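Hello again, I could really use a second opinion on something today. I've been puzzling over a protein and I'd love to understand its fold better. I'm sending you its amino acid sequence along with the backbone structure tokens. It would help a lot if you went through both lines with me. I've dropped the whole record in just underneath, so have a look.
***
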Amino acid sequence: MKASRPLDVDALIGDPATRVVVCCGSGGVGKTTTAAALALRAAERHGRHTVVLTIDPARRLAQALGLEELDNTPRLVAGTEGGHLDAMMLDMKRTFDEVVLAHTSPEKAAEIFANPFYQAMSGTFAGTQEYMAMEKLSQLRAKGDWDLIVVDTPPSRSALDFLDAPARLARFLDGRMMRLLTSSSRGGHSVFSLMTSSMSFFTRTINKVIGGRMLSDIGTFAASLDSTFGGFRTRAEATYRALQDRQTAFLVVAAPEPDAIREAIYFTRRLTEEHMPLTGLILNRAHETSVPGLSAGRSIGAAEGIEASDPDSATAAVLRVHADLMSRVVTERRIASRFTTACPSVPVARVPAFPADIHDLDGLRIVGRSLGSH
């Protein structure tokens, strides 16, 4: 593997100027565990008041932090040795409701909550998770209760979709159809009354597909968009700009596997294009050996020589295990070198492969110490 600059994780999370750390990467690379370990180490070693926010629907974080469950409210992690650590998991429906409650009257909010289109959109509408992730990060920053916010993003390339949230929301709010729905609802006229008679077949088809009631629900919901979401769009854009600030650090998390390294290269290039402060790569589950000078070939040769006189030799068995490990180490280094070749200026921190899954605070501390040893 090509040499790369080491990533000084302790300097990063211990720096008071670092206020937000965003962990992104493909699924199955230990991103959630990494985010939790970083947050715990920042609290315990550096005495920071930290919160970790997971957007990953897999609920492994609660178990590792000794909590029965995580929800939209920050929960104190008991058992931390110094500092203060809270943890939470994004609930996009509750966050959506909070936006409505904060930016409209109780009466209007009740009307919106009862709207069937809102009920569907707030829970399943494409992009809602990313919009609400941006909103929740904005809320946490505005609250000012934490020195450091660590964000665990969704797996795969959707991990960077929240970067597009402000622009996508603006296009949605400013789109021609949404303006038409809004204006027709405010004027008390059906949107179809604005269409020419030559469109009658189209209108009948739309009515048949989504129904007149659904169209009315959408129109009613659209009429409330300006007051409810205008502020969100402004905050989302402000949060996007804050993500570009030097108070934020993006960490790409990967494993020494072809797909994960390919995604890491993609994330790195995308973050660079978006002028986001990319700080480094965390290479998880990297196998290591304490005898790097003994190659797989030499180990196999030595084992065969011993077995010629002693077929049941324990030493020969150990040499063969070492040979397998060295083969894996060499393969992983070759795969990881694709990243350092493509992104030579990005610092790298390596976390060794552990014999068992991380499932508690002690395990997270071990991960944190390995991150801080670079």
About this structure: The chain is about 55% helix and 10% strand. Residues 184-212 have pLDDT under 50 and may be disordered. The chain has one domain: 9-293+323-372. The first helix runs from residue 9 to 14.
